[in-house]
Design goal:
Layout (H helix, E strand, L loop, with lengths): L4 H15 L9 H8 L3 H13 L3 E4 L5 E4 L8 H9 L24 H16 L3 H5 L18
Antiparallel strand pairs: 1-2
Helix pairs in contact: 1-2, 1-3, 1-4, 2-3
Length: about 150
């Protein structure tokens, strides 16, 4: 299983945004693209998608930009994955919709896929942006206190 590059970039951008959490200025895609190395068109696309998913609050126009909609400690990697990829579903068996599978009539594994799916989602939900925003080798700061503020 591998997440898409778009999801990886979304985690990178939101982690950078988490490091700026608590600052007065709104963030923008250009600033985060420069800071992270994510291509600007990709950053702009993700800002739109993350705003639609409710992970960031966005304001257009002069003085506009965006901020995280919740504290970094309240946004998990599962939230980001689902914002970009859609629901975390390991196999079609977990999806409630109809699917084509020649084994579905007598599959003995199908009843267990929900447990596998929940384990994977739980692992992703156990990691927050606040945890990823902390520089390795430093002590974790409070989720309410920015570890770095733009000058």
């Amino acid at each position: 299983m591998r997440l898409s590059s778009l999801t990886d970039y979304a985690v990178v951008l939101l982690t950078a945004a988490a490091r700026h959490c608590g600052g007065v200025a709104r963030l923008n895609a250009t600033m985060l693209a420069e800071e992270t190395g994510v291509p600007l068109p990709t950053a702009q696309k993700l800002v739109s998608r993350l705003s639609a998913a409710g992970l960031i609050d966005s304001v257009r126009g002069t003085g506009g930009g965006f901020r995280l909609s919740r504290p970094p400690s309240a946004i998990t990697i599962a939230d980001v994955v689902e914002a970009v990829e859609g629901p975390i579903v390991m196999t079609a068996c977990v999806d409630a919709g109809d699917h084509d599978c020649n084994l579905s009539g007598n599959c003995r594994v199908k009843p267990h896929w929900n447990a596998v799916n929940e384990a994977v989602r739980g692992a992703l939900a156990g990691v927050t942006l606040a945890q990823l925003a902390v520089q390795p080798g430093t002590q974790a700061a409070s989720s309410e206190t920015p570890t770095r503020v733009l000058a």
